[in-house]
Amino acid sequence: MPRPSSSRPTDSELEILGVLWDKGAATVREVHEELSLRKPTGYTTVLKFMQIMMDKGLITRREQHRVHVYESAVPREATQSELVRDLAQRAFGGSALELAMRALESNRATPGELDKIRRLLDQAEKGRR
Amino acid sequence: MPRPSSSRPTDSELEILGVLWDKGAATVREVHEELSLRKPTGYTTVLKFMQIMMDKGLITRREQHRVHVYESAVPREATQSELVRDLAQRAFGGSALELAMRALESNRATPGELDKIRRLLDQAEKGRR
DNA sequence: GTGTGTCAACGAAGTTATTCGTAACAAAAC
DNA sequence: GTTTTGTTACGAATAACTTCGTTGACACAC
User: Fold this and answer.
1) By the 8 A CB rule, do A75 and A18 touch?
2) Does B128 have pLDDT greater than 80?
3) Contact, A25 CB vs strand D, < 7 Å
């Protein structure tokens, strides 16, 4: 039986997913090296997490020339959307828009980013007509 | 010593904060009643959380005619901003804008909300000139 | 004053998340 | 062939979060 999708990845799991999303695929050692740049982390700690994530179905692996090569089993964008939905639910009365506004408020956007957002808005407006 | 601000409120704490933000102030019983509408919750469970939140400094209370009346000690908007920053950090490489865009993507906004966002954008644009 | 109801305090237990030591194993180096 | 190195697997310790039963204090009704 699959886990309920209500459970989000933990902080540690998300860090590892981030590395796998960036690299596409990686061994435990590679993930460990990447994470070590940001903060002290034990190799077996990372390994353990990745084993747990296998059990949860968050990542997949294949054996290749003696080592395991891991890949994310969940797409980055979908996971981000879930996390946003989840946070909107928990802290914004369910409104992803309120969340978006709070995110925009405290931010210096580049003109390119502002354009991107405007296009999104236009699309949204078109969508409702 | 105060807790590091890095620790976000837990899910349960956030639910309680939400009620207190809405009501302004409330007793344990009132919070419990509100939460019970959404899901089964034990009274002493809520009480325990609120005692823990007192210890953490998330809420304050005053004794009033035999019962304790609680209030949030952290402002709603500031907490929301922190949570957004935190999620941006953990899942969007630190970019609150990427987060905002992801939030806007999967959303049907009302015209009023779209206007509000446009005004925010205009402000942002003015801000950088 | 005894009973009833409301509430706060406390302690304990269950669950999940985090961390890492130790062992097992195989390939490569010697 | 023994040692070293890089890896996976396992198990356990700790901490954080969640849940609730039990107890005791107080006040109001009778």
Assistant:
1) no
2) no
3) no
Burial class of residue A55 in the structure, from the number of CB atoms within 10 Å of its CB (0-12 exposed, 13-18 middle, 19+ buried) = exposed
Return the closest-CA partner of residue A12 out of A50, A65, A54, A63. Answer: A50
The answer to whether B39 CB is within 7 Å of strand D is: no
Over the stretch B74-122, which tens digit does the pLDDT of each residue have? Answer: 999 999 999 999 999 999 999 999 999 899 887 666 777 778 878 877 7
Helical H segments across chain A, by residue range: 11-23, 28-38, 43-56, 76-91, 96-105, 111-128
Residues in chain A: 129
- Decide if B58 contacts B70 (C-beta within 8 A): no
Q: Which of B81, B110, B28, B24 is nearest to A92 (CA)?
A: B81
Rounded CA–C1' distance between B87 and C15, in angstroms = 24
Which nucleotide has the least CA–C1' distance to A32?
Answer: D7
Pick from A105, A108, A122 the residue to mutate for testing the B interface (most B CBs within 10 Å). A105
If you search the block for the tokens 């005619």, which residue do you land on?
A: B65
